[in-house]
Specification:
Chain lengths: ~500, ~400
């Protein structure tokens, strides 16, 4: 994995840049530049890749972001926008010759407009804080990435984050009305607003999921929804992952759209039971969690159909949560799946491909076969409703070669996803992690178009360079090279 | 793994590529057309732009009901698609308007048009998962995918949605589908004062109910009108919700059963209530729903003849005498954070101020995106805004 090589010229300008930033910002606490303080900003949640930036700016307003961006432009210094650092694809990985602009201090809720069902917040407000601000009046913000307690709305928009309810409620892009963005030249623009349409091209769509490459989001107006009056959860046990996948297809084909459908395989179920003891059955191959929500009368009308479908698809056991407490308990295991895996193996690598639902059984059996070939266990928990897989590859970073094997395994899984008609990333983004796999999905012409879009917004390539686009345009089999500390063929080169 | 290729070829597709390349070489702009049912949208610089007719690209590419995904070529008729989907109890939930028999999927996506259900389920752009297009260089490119959850590259598919044929020729479109609600019914409140009507629409839209249509049609020249609220879902749930709404509502209330309900929303979607007469012009405003009447009051000071509210107040249809000062209406829209479309009165109408102007910064980004996708400016360069 390589980033654009750091520029010596930029590195030499560091002290002068910091001096100018101090003058610009006034409050010295807004500038972090001592190595011991920069440790926090070495990596996002894809912690295999680490690198310290020259400095981190804690911005307190769009105006400040704009001024810092202009100053960086003057020095020709690249910028990495930073929310909470919870991203899983290295999208916020700093550049050693760049500046990180953190939006975390911009955490004010600016406007709650229940009439128009819109909330306007600064970019550093967390996903969950939006719901917290309106839940006493019966509303919520729908996208719910698992890191919602910590992740910021700005980061959610940059990554087009999902969650477990996307089949019914969409991803971030379907739940945003407008953004304020600082462009690469420092100009501040508003895209969209409280109306349902914006004039001109849908730049809001381009900005959503742009991974910090097109602009720095400083403010967002999101759509809030009324909390459904009823939510009922079901757990069905199956003797194969294949029949679980079939049940999912049958449910969709029957004309209902559950708010969530999650599959867990044997390894995940056992791990979760060991970790939490939430009452999942042991010794079973797979379980499916289904949740119906909406108008009480509609949910009640669908329960019978759902239960029949699950039994017909081969469910050996069926549990229905009749109370809110039971519902929370059913979900608690799924929500603990990732931490539970942390106890099974020293490390795991979480993948994020999306496939057409109908290909689930086939893809899962191929992943099992790969697991044998690579000699690494894989646990499967995934958003079955929308085909978003999260295979967790278990490995031990202290065992020589295992991390590299895990990465190769991961890359093969993602290529498989593309081969069956899916995509490289459902909700974690491309970042640095999957950058070099982009040519597996896109032709040179496709990628040229994307790069032209980038250039339309950021002609000098100062916003988050080295992310999303492959440095080399070939589909690298076996995925990315990973370089572990001390094992570099050329230790002097900047790699991570 | 092999790199992806675009090897499928058809005569219709090749003809389009050739026409784009030739137009680029000659520096002659073209106008991309399909069923010609949306020709009244946008500016018309000159009616002599040669047409690039995409209607021969009319094939179904794939339909997998279990995936809730449809892939079609842009020239496929909207009516054919709807018939196909109805056979599997599915539909295009954004309820696209037809405005004529020839309406195509390509035109719907290119114009980014959505019907009455939009405020509940999302717009055309929310249902576009991926596209293939020929850009201004004659290159065939693909963006997005065929799955709901996707963050692989910039969302160029959505950027093409509502670009009015100015960024590229759509050659394939992948749409997200939705199960068709089992049934529907509409609650009607007649003689409803407009202030009460908007208040009810805002309150109902915020209820945890499956209300999928909210419109208000004033009776000509009177301060009262008819409020319509559509509920969809399984029969018992629709009945239960209707009952709840009726209980809390005063006035002259009636109900429309499934067929009548479907009919009235189709009339609304097809603009049957807002057909401009001779010497009238049609406008459409999109804004924050709660501001709808503030807009109407200001439009009344500018010779507003008739109007109606859709999307729970978020979309206002308005009729004016022909030659009303377009810039004044756009200025009103801007002040309310709205965006407006003026519909051309006919093929002779240049419709110079078809869309509300953008802020200078956003306008510049629009131009740069146009330049990126269509560097020679061959796709209707003046369709949306006057070229600088």
């Amino acid at each position: 994995m390589q980033l654009p090589p750091p520029s010596q010229k930029r590195l030499q300008q560091r002290d002068e840049l910091v001096r100018r930033l101090r003058k610009l910002l006034g409050d010295p606490d807004q500038i972090i530049h001592r190595p011991e303080d920069l440790v926090v900003y070495e990596c996002d949640a894809l912690s295999a890749y680490r690198q310290q930036p020259m400095t981190v700016i804690l911005a307190s307003s769009a105006e400040e972001v704009s001024r810092v961006v202009r100053l960086c432009g003057e020095f020709d210094i690249p910028i990495v926008p930073w929310g909470a650092g919870t991203g899983l694809s290295g999208g916020a990985l700093p550049l050693s010759d760049g500046v990180v602009i953190s939006l975390a201090r911009m955490n004010r809720i600016l406007d709650i407009d229940l009439e128009n069902r819109a909330v306007t917040v600064e970019a550093g407000v967390t996903n969950l804080a939006i719901t917290r601000a309106v839940e006493d009046r019966g509303f919520y913000y729908a996208p719910d990435p698992s890191s919602q307690l910590a992740c910021t709305i700005g980061g959610n928009i940059a990554e087009n984050s999902g969650g477990v309810h996307c089949l019914k409620y969409g991803t971030t892009t379907n739940n945003i009305l407008g953004v304020q963005v600082v462009l690469a030249d420092g100009e501040v623009v508003d895209l969209g607003g409280k109306s349902m349409d914006q004039g001109g091209y849908d730049l809001l769509a381009l900005m959503t999921g742009s991974e910090g490459l097109l602009g720095i989001i400083t403010e967002a107006t999101v759509r809030i929804l009324r909390k459904p009056e009823s939510a009922r959860a079901f757990m069905a046990v199956f003797d194969s992952v294949e029949s679980t996948g079939q049940a999912v297809s049958d449910i969709i084909a029957s004309g209902m759209v559950p708010s969530g459908m999650e599959i867990m395989d044997r390894l995940s179920i056992e791990a979760v039971e060991d970790f939490l003891g939430c009452g999942y059955p042991r010794g079973v191959e797979a379980l499916l969690l289904v949740e119906l929500d909406g108008v009480a009368a509609e949910v009640e009308a669908r329960i019978g159909t759902l239960e029949t479908l699950l039994r017909q698809a081969g469910a050996t056991e069926l549990r229905r949560a009749d109370t809110e407490e039971e519902r929370a308990r059913l979900w608690s295991g799924r929500k603990a799946a990732f931490p539970a895996m942390g106890r099974v193996a020293p490390d795991y690598y979480c993948m994020d491909g999306t496939i057409p639902r109908g290909r689930l059984p086939e893809v899962l059996s191929l992943i099992q076969a790969m697991s044998k070939n690579f000699g690494l266990q894989v646990a499967n928990v995934f958003h079955a409703g929308d085909g978003n897989l999260h295979p967790l590859i278990l490995y031990d970073s202290n065992a020589p070669g295992e991390l590299e094997r895990a990465e190769s395994f991961g890359a093969e899984i993602l290529q498989l996803c593309v081969r069956v008609g899916g995509v490289l990333s459902g909700e974690h983004g491309i970042g640095v992690e999957k950058r070099d796999l982009m040519p597996c999905m896109f032709t040179d012409a496709d990628l040229d178009t994307q790069e032209r879009v980038k250039a339309a917004f950021d002609p000098r390539q100062l916003l988050n360079p080295g992310k999303v686009f492959p440095l080399l345009r070939r589909c690298i089999p076996g995925g990315s090279m990973h370089v572990h500390a001390g094992e570099l063929p050329f230790p002097g080169l900047e790699r991570f | 793994m092999a790199k992806p290729t675009r090897s499928d070829r058809s005569a219709a597709l090749e003809a389009i590529e050739v026409q784009v390349v030739e137009a680029g070489a000659a520096g002659t702009p073209v106008e991309i057309t399909g069923g010609r049912t949306k020709a009244g949208l946008g500016r018309r610089e000159s009616d002599s732009l040669p047409r690039l007719d995409a209607s021969a690209l009319d094939q179904l590419v794939s339909y997998e009901p279990g995936e809730l995904v449809l892939v079609v070529q842009p020239g496929m008729r909207l009516s054919a698609v709807e018939e196909l989907l109805a056979g599997e109890n599915q539909h295009l939930a954004f309820e696209p308007p037809h405005w004529g028999e020839g309406a195509t999927v390509g035109g719907t996506v290119a114009c980014g048009l959505s019907g009455p259900r939009r405020f509940k389920v999302g717009a055309a752009r929310d249902f576009v998962l991926g596209i293939e297009l020929v850009d201004g260089r004659g290159e065939r490119i693909r963006a997005g995918g065929r799955v709901v959850k996707n963050v692989t590259g910039y969302d160029v598919s959505r950027a093409l949605t509502g670009s009015f044929g100015t960024l590229g020729v759509l050659t394939e479109i992948c749409l997200k589908l939705w199960p068709r609600p089992e049934t529907q019914a509409t609650l009607v409140v007649d003689g409803c004062d407009r202030v009460d009507a908007l208040a009810l629409m805002l309150a109902w839209a915020a209820l945890p109910l499956e209300i999928t249509g909210l419109a208000y049609l004033p009776e000509g020249g009177s301060p009262v009108g008819r409020l319509l609220g559509r509920i969809e879902g399984p029969e018992p749930a629709v009945t239960a919700q209707l009952r709840r709404l009726v209980e809390g509502t005063a006035g002259s209330i009636s109900e429309l059963g499934e067929a009548e309900s479907a009919h009235v929303w189709k009339q609304l979607r097809e603009l049957e209530f807002f057909q401009p007469g001779a010497d009238e012009e049609l406008w459409r405003f999109s804004l924050a729903p709660a501001h709808a009447l503030r807009l109407v009051e200001q439009l009344e000071a500018h010779d507003l003849l008739r109007y109606g509210l859709d999307w729970g107040g978020g979309q206002v249809w308005a009729l004016f005498p022909a030659r009303v000062a377009a810039s004044s209406l756009h200025r009103i829209a801007l002040l309310l954070g709205a965006t407006a479309w003026r519909f051309a009165r006919g093929p002779e109408d240049a419709n110079d101020e078809a869309f509300t102007p953008l802020s200078p910064g956003v306008h510049r980004l629009n131009q740069r995106l146009k330049q990126a996708m269509d560097p020679k400016g061959i796709f209707s360069p003046g369709r949306m805004y006057r070229p600088d």
